[in-house]
Design a protein that fits this description.
The protein is an alpha+beta fold. The protein has one domain: BirA Bifunctional Protein, domain 2 (2-Layer Sandwich), CATH 3.30.930.10. The strands form three sheets. Strands 1, 5, 6, 9, 11, 12, 13, 14 and 15 form a nine-stranded mixed β-sheet that branches. Strands 2-4-3 form a three-stranded antiparallel β-sheet, with no helix packed on it. Strands 7-8-10 form a three-stranded mixed β-sheet. Helix 3 packs across helix 9, helix 4 crosses helix 6 and helix 5 runs parallel beside helix 6. It is globular and about 55 Å long.
Length: about 350
């Protein structure tokens, strides 16, 4: 039979009984992990909140793309709004209102993202502690991941042949240490207070065999090195806390007291997979506005569009107490606990 006469292979929909039967164990594990997480937050006296999905802005990070829609008022007037990419803005408004320990299991939406670990609609587990140093979130993560693994009946987190012990003490590694260890690069040699040496980092990047293009910014080069040289080596055998990001890579975090070139940001990794992103939250509204505006200039340069700034959020930020917050990709946690290979396996009704 010629190739022209062959019918194209069509995958079965997620609701096909045989597909659902294969996914059912992962979905059952998801339910147990959800219950375990809620029980842990209750034991820590957190309040569960339900942030609204429609917001003035989907967020103001250069590489996060939102979904837009229009609210039509009774008089026929229209207002552009967006599906949130994170419940962060609402949660911080609640901190300004007086809440001190809150968490949310929120459906969030990000365009331009699809793959084994990415989905246009997914669940973000976010929690915030007012008046608490951000290092406390590391212990939160350790306890939550252990509870999730126990609920799933898993002795190890697993992803594409890599494993991590969910019950072991996490490794804490600074970004600068990771660049030195896994790429042989002195990252801080290209990082000054308020300035970045793009050419220095470009030379170092090319020197370790990572492709550099003329239009690569310092942040582009940083991201390439993270994805190609750093991330694959993180969270192997034990969870890794990648800590103290350069301030240019932490738009929502306050700067470190011991080095203004760095910010209070960590990411959590297991099996080479990023699970969570945490901040010692920035509460300086003027600095936050400047960072948002810079991010949107970059977004317009790359994608030809920018998003509005939520003025109500900036007003609330000026009233918000010092706090620490973290966002964890809930489906990724379920995947690693249950042994799933694709994010659609742990979502009840994946986007077509």
């Amino acid at each position: 039979m010629s190739s022209k006469s062959q019918k194209p292979e069509i995958s079965s929909p997620w609701w096909a009984p045989h597909v659902h039967a294969d996914r059912r164990p992962f979905l059952a594990a998801r339910g147990r992990i959800t219950a375990a997480c809620r029980a842990w937050f209750a034991s820590e006296e957190f309040s569960e909140v339900e942030p609204g999905i429609l917001q003035v802005s989907p967020g103001n990070e250069a590489h996060i793309a939102g979904f837009g829609t229009d609210i039509i008022d009774p008089d026929g007037g229209q207002r552009r709004v967006y599906l949130h990419s994170s419940p962060e803005f609402v949660c911080k408004k609640l901190l300004a209102a007086g809440e001190e320990r809150i968490f949310a299991l929120s459906r969030v939406f990000r365009n331009r993202e699809r793959g084994p670990l990415h989905h246009p609609e997914f669940t973000m587990l976010e929690w915030y502690r007012a008046k608490t140093p951000y290092g406390a979130l590391i212990e939160d993560c350790r306890a939550l991941i252990a509870a999730a693994a126990q609920a799933a009946g898993s002795a190890a987190l697993v992803w594409r042949g890599k494993t991590a012990d969910p019950f072991a003490e996490p490794e804490r590694l600074s970004v600068a240490e990771a660049f030195e260890r896994f790429a042989g690069i002195d990252l801080m040699a290209s990082v000054g207070v308020g300035e970045l040496d793009r050419d220095r980092l470009a030379r170092d990047t090319a020197g370790v065999g990572v492709r550099v293009t003329e239009d690569d910014t310092w942040s582009d080069l940083f991201s390439k090195l993270i994805s190609e040289k750093i991330e694959p080596s993180l969270g192997l055998g034990q969870i890794t806390v990648l800590d103290e990001y350069p301030a240019a890579e932490a738009a929502l975090a306050r700067r470190c007291g011991h080095d203004p070139r760095l910010s209070e940001r960590f990411e959590l990794y297991a099996c080479g997979v990023e699970l969570a992103n945490a901040f010692g939250e920035l509460t300086d509204a003027a600095e936050q506005r400047a960072r948002f505006e810079a991010e949107m200039v970059e977004r317009r340069r790359i994608y030809g569009e920018a998003y509005p700034i939520d003025e109500d959020f900036l007003a609330a930020l000026a009233e918000m107490p010092e706090a620490s917050g973290i966002a964890l990709g809930f489906e990724r946690l379920v995947m690693l606990c249950a042994g799933a290979q694709r994010i659609e396996q742990v979502i009840w009704s994946p986007v077509p």
